Amino acid sequence: MSDVPSPSASPRWNTPTKFLVALVCLALLGWLLLQFQSLWGPMIAMCIIAYLLSPVAGWVERVMRLPWAVAVTLVYLVVFMLIVVVGVVAGVAIQRQVVGLYNAVVNISGDLPRFLQELTSRPIAIGPFVIDPTTVDVRQLLQPLTSAIQPALSQLGIWVSGFAAGTATGLGWFFFVLILSYYLLLDLRNVLTGLDQRVPEPLREDVRRLAASLGPIWNNYLRGQVTLSGTLGIMIGVTLSVLGVSYAPVLGIVAFMLDFIPYIGAMLSLIIGTLVALFQGSNWLGLDPIWYAVLVGTAYLILQQVQGYVFWPRIMGVTFNLHPVIIIVGALMMAQLMGVVGLMLAAPLIATLVVFGRYVFRKLFDLDPWDGAPLAVKTARISPLARLRSIGFGRRPRLRHLEPELRQTEPPQGQPQ
Question: Which of 108, 122, 112 has its CA nearest to residue 142?
Fold first, then answer.
């Protein structure tokens, strides 16, 4: 018989100790997030790239019957070659377009007050009707508009200038994020499996249900929104090129990026494109600058409505049951916390916080956290007449016929899985 005593079991922490340790860990996590706030954008971009390319790698794995690592490597090699080819062929041209758009925005911000003053000093003929602004003190009405537009144009000019000047730095960060996303996607399956195994057994079902609730939000937003915004950017770039608008390709890129901003992005894109058309001077259609700007603004409106009422119900699949005020205020808060990335991802981030907040609230009061309709609901088919009735500027279609619940992924009890 051995005289070595058996090791005693580790003592359990009581509730106050657990609470104190959890509070310290949360405080430390918050401090780290604030200290490294500048890295939020690249890290989120890394996760987004890996998430968007994961179905492509899965398709290559299934079709070509390759190992997962080989499929991921092949996908990233193709993406890298496409980036290099596009950068070599169109990189210089795009940079010139960006610089030209910056100069145009600077000129517009300086010429806008003078143009509005000239516009209100002569009669305006609209068909058989003639409007004489000199009989009405229109300048006092337009002064607040001028004061509001000028700072926005100045900020846009600063952003475009910084984008043009920091092209090399931006490309360096982009390739760095691309490499990190490659390693993340390479081990994505092992990471997900390891996370599931490290969750305590009593909490695994809740974690899986939370993941199932968040899945439709991020699946449809990331892949669907990228597809929708890319479609809108291409349509606007091609249409403005046909109409002869200056810097049409860059305006298409601007429309693509601003479309991620909820509700106000479409309006900002329209204002920028219309002002560029208004101040560019001559056009091949031979129209007066004002009517040419009206034509370009109308084209923006039509393309945005086509995106919202034709492509949106077919691509997104689900919508967020959130009030527009919540999304807009949340977008401003996310912009303060995470910059441009937070502004673009405001809608799914707020929806995610709502899901976790609802779960914590119901658990605190000993309620069933899974009782009630989910946040994300499937959109129903909408008739063309209903689309026409619900048309609104800069708004997504108001889908009135929504399924109250998502389809259950688990089979009923008693049926084989």
Answer: 112
Would you call 344 exposed, middle or buried from its count of C-beta atoms within 10 A (0-12, 13-18, 19+)? Answer: buried
The residue count for the chain: 417
Burial class of residue 146 (count of CB atoms within 10 Å of its CB; 0-12, 13-18, 19+): middle
- Tokens standing for residue 192: 């997900």
Task: Indicate the SS3 state at residue 6.
Answer: coil
Nearest-angstrom CA–CA distance, 319 and 314: 12
Q: pLDDT tens, position by position, for the chain (417 residues)? A: 455 555 557 788 888 888 898 899 989 988 887 888 777 778 888 888 888 888 899 999 999 999 999 999 999 999 988 888 877 776 666 767 777 777 777 677 666 666 666 666 666 665 566 666 555 555 555 566 556 555 555 555 555 555 555 555 666 777 888 888 999 888 877 776 777 777 788 888 888 888 888 877 887 777 788 888 999 999 999 999 999 998 888 899 889 988 888 778 888 889 889 988 888 877 888 888 888 999 999 999 999 989 888 888 777 655 666 777 787 788 888 877 777 777 778 888 888 888 888 888 888 888 888 776 556 555 444 433 343 333 333 444 443 333 343 344 444 444 444
- Domain ranges in the chain are 39-198, 220-404
